[in-house]
Each structure stands twice: as structure tokens, then as C-alpha cells.
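Re: your question about Inositol 2-dehydrogenase

S., sorry for the slow reply, the queue was backed up all week. Below is exactly what I fed in.
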Amino acid sequence: MSTPPVDGDASTTGIGLVGAGRIGTSHARLLAIRVPGARLVAVADPRPGAAAALAGPLGAVGVESPAELLARDDVDAVVVTASTEAHADLVEAAARAGKAVFCEKPAGLSLAELDRGIAATEAAGVAFQVGFNRRFAPEFAAARAAVDAGRIGRPQLLRSLTRDPGLPNPAAVPAWAVFVLTLIHDFDTILWLHPGAEPVSVYAVADALVAPEFKEAGLLDTAVVTIRFDDGAIAVAEANFSAGYGYDVRGEVFGSAGTLRIGEEPRTALQLFDADGRHSATPRSDVELFGDAYAGELTEFVAAVREGRRPAVTGHDARRALSIALSCIASVRTGGPVDPALVAGTVDARIR
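Result:
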């Protein structure tokens, strides 16, 4: 028997969230407060008390089992923010339950896993969106609009970088996280800012420079990736886990008629002048830097569910970015460039 619905406006979309960790906490608060048409109904997390602690103050209920959440009649859509290894199974389970799905990236650790999620959601006729939040940040959205309008001509060189502020617990970081958890955002951004072009070659170099003592365990924390496209354009993506000055995300598109630069300016109007010079405050986390973008992507998801249409970011978009991430793993293993069309389908990010 399904759990009785919580009190709420039946005209809103009931959301169940799976995973009460750091990003799940942020998403739950956004859904409860900032996303139009959304009603946070329930939170699931297997850790005793974690779901209730997050859900209670937000007017939702907490449960320990995702199955219990999916069985609720008042849950129309599910937001998956659980551990990465659980993403693919949760996407399929939600689709089988007839729920629309928003899944944090990556939505699978192999193309086969992601393909199963895409197939399940398409068979169920439910919306499926993957969390590439940079598309919803105003400066990135403005850059895409400028590309579409032809303001910089034909893109020739693209660059995207992510530098995370620290690596507090290297032992908890998956071996290939630099590609499938961090740079996957940069890959999606590059693909999105160069519409209509397809990657034909991926070459990655990576090392353990932040926590070298964990290199033998397979952890890589610094990487540079070169991507060549079928129209001749070249992109570079880089990542590092030791930006002690704050969370650093930037991008650039150089074209035949101009250049777009994203994220070069300070993200706050606050400036401090003292004996050491001029200082600008730097965001310390992705939630701080991309708070509005996170709200924007969830707003898009809820709107797509309510309007019965495909979200702006689909499982197929996620597949393209994951294909490059997996190609990076293959490139590091072989020491040379690889064709993503040939190798990505043979790689599983769980295998070191």
C-alpha cells in the first residue's frame, strides 16, 4: 500500500529527493523554497535519521528506503543526489515507478549504465534531466546565446577549467573522479558552446600532484584534456583539486570574429583594500558560486514535468559528456589520443 500523501497543494509537482548529503541538502532547500511549482514531499537516505533531519524543517517527510519514496502517490518526480555508484539503478527504478527523473551527474559510470537509464525513461514516457548546472548560470547562458547569434564567428579554440578548493579526504575520492565527477562539467560546457560539432579525438594527461601519496591507490587529482572536433576546432579542459583561494570555474570561446570569456571577473562586489593590496572575495564552494544556476536547472526540470516536454538537458546530452570522460580514462591508460566513438563504450569508470 502506498504511503498517504503529505498535506500540500495538489496543483504543484510533488518531488521526492534521494540522497541527503551535501548537494542533496542544497537541492532540497531550493526545491522547498525557490523552485516555482515544486513541492518537496519526501527525502530518502539510508543513513539513520539523515533524511528526517533534512526533510522535517522543510515540511517534508524522511524515509530510509528509496523504494518507499518511489511508492508514494504524491511523488510525481524524483531528484537523485545519492552516491554516484547508485545513480544508474535509481534512475531506472524511478522510471519503472512512472516518475520523472532529475539525476546529478554522472547518471552512470559506463555508457551501458547510462543507456539503460535513457531507455527506461523513454519507455516510461517520463522526463529525464541530468544536472549540468553551468548551462543555467547567466554568464554561460549569455555566452551560448552569443555563439548562436554568430557574434564571434566560427568557434576555433575553446577552453574550460575547474579548480576545486582543496582535497580534505583523498581516500574518499574515486580514482577517476577528476574526469567523471569534475571535468565532466567542462566537457558538457565545451560541447554545449560548440553546437553541431562532434569530438573525434581525446587526449588526456593526469597525475597526482595534490595528494601524491594516493597515486598508487589510483587517485588522480590534476588533469589536462585536449579535444579535437570534426570541424577542426580544438578544446582544452583542465582541472585541479587544490585551489586554496576558492572555487575557480572559467571558460573561453575564441572564434573567427571574436572571443568570449566567462568567469574572469570577481563573483562579488566586495573588495578589500589593505596594506597587502586589493582583494576580492572568492566563492568557497560550487553551491556558493552556482547557487542561482542550481535553482535554474531545477526550475527547468519542474517546468518540463509540468508541461509534459523534454528538459533542456537530456540523457543524450549526458551521454556525450560521459563519452569524453571515459575516453580520457582510456587515453591515460594507453598514453595516447583515442577516438571516443570507438573506445568510450568499452570503459567502465569503476575499473582502475
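The chain has a mean pLDDT of 93. The CA atoms of residues 80 and 90 lie 7 Å apart.

Happy to talk it through on Thursday.
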